[in-house]
Design brief:
By secondary structure, the chain is an alpha+beta fold. It folds into two domains: about 180 residues, Chemotaxis protein chec; about 55 residues, Surface presentation of antigens (SPOA) (Roll), CATH 2.30.330. Strand 2 and strand 3 form a beta hairpin. Helix 5 packs across helix 6. About 5% of the residues have low confidence.
């Protein structure tokens, strides 16, 4: 909005105060017309306000939810790739709060909709998948290429059953990603392709909408999850906590040890070392002898990934050389 008044605005203000010492209230009582309020020019939006936009989730709570569903996206990538035997990537592209009516209006079609009961959530949960994605998945699961040119608006009962071979594991992965916050157990209550049948909540109820985008060589589509806010409300504090910070020091020692115990390491035996000038190095010829600082009988140093870790004695095991570890070096303990 401009801070400098226009000529019309100045004239209107002068007209309002032109009567000698009378107020607007007095003018209206004696029949003096009160000027109409100034309206914005046609097509000019001064400040758009969405009075129905919900704001139940704080920034930290929304960010905590995003972290869990981003983890779910990675699990979905592996599951979809495994079930369809295709290199597929699934990303969580949005987590937002909105009214249920707005979510229904934004629902693309055609789409397959699943009504779920996710214990301990009190209200039903909706899960949707693009019909193009599911129909290609059905064709792929049945041994086809997965490339479909014509997608039906509705599924038969048999096609729904085959599609659940993909939908079921996807729901398992989503529940698995939230297991740290709440143990979810889903059951299928209904399934259909008509969005008008998805009116499970009042239009003004606030919901959490999660959007996953699945992309592959030729099989693409989106997956959407809708959770009523009243079901999530008792759990919101758990989403804002750092799961690692809540643990006692050393609580992850066994888990980390089990994860890294099969990691390969480079181990070498250092029989001795010498320090020579670059000029001497360049003049070396086959047959030249380099004196080492190590005396005969002294333990050899065993570096692990370049850092000294053990000392030991070099010996022979059959036709091969070997090393007997004598001690763990103090600075590496």
């Amino acid at each position: 909005m401009n801070e400098i008044l226009t000529n019309e605005e100045i004239d209107t203000l002068l007209q309002m105060f032109r009567s000698e010492g009378t107020t607007m209230a007095d003018e209206s009582q004696v029949g003096v017309p009160v000027p109409a309020p100034m309206l914005a020019d046609e097509g000019v939006v001064v400040s758009p306000v969405d009075l129905l936009k919900p704001n139940r989730l704080g920034r930290e709570q929304l960010r905590g939810l995003e972290r869990y569903f981003e983890s779910a996206g990675k699990l979905l990538s592996a599951t979809i790739s495994d079930k369809l035997r295709l290199d597929t990537r699934c990303d969580c592209v949005a987590v937002e709060q909105l009214r249920f009516g707005s979510w229904l209006e934004q629902l693309p079609g055609p789409v397959s909709i699943y009504v779920l009961q996710m214990e301990p959530f009190r209200l039903p949960v909706l899960f949707t998948a693009s019909t193009s994605l599911l129909y290609g998945a059905v064709d792929r699961i049945l041994g086809g290429s997965g490339k479909v040119t014509k997608v039906p608006k509705d599924f038969t009962a048999a096609e729904h059953t085959v599609a659940e071979a993909l939908v079921g594991p996807c729901l398992d992965r989503i529940c698995e990603s939230l297991a740290e916050v709440v143990k979810l157990k889903w059951t299928l209550q209904n399934r259909f392709c008509n969005p008008s049948m998805a009116q499970i909540l009042p239009s003004q109820d606030v919901v959490l909408a999660v959007y996953f985008q699945s992309t592959g060589d030729f099989l693409m589509g989106d997956l959407r999850l809708l959770i009523p806010f009243v079901s999530l409300e008792p759990l919101l504090d758990r989403f804002t906590r750092d799961s690692v910070a809540r643990l006692e020091p050393g609580a992850l020692r066994d888990k980390v040890a089990g994860t890294v115990k099969d990691v390969s390491l480079d181990l070498a035996v250092q029989l001795g070392g010498a320090r020579i000038r670059l000029r001497q190095l360049l003049e070396l010829q086959p047959g030249d002898v380099i004196p080492l600082a190590t005396r005969i009988g002294e333990p050899a140093i065993v570096p692990v990934h370049g850092r000294p870790k053990f000392t030991g004695h070099v010996g022979r095991i059959g036709n091969r050389l070997g090393l007997q570890v004598a001690d763990v070096m103090a600075e590496s303990r």
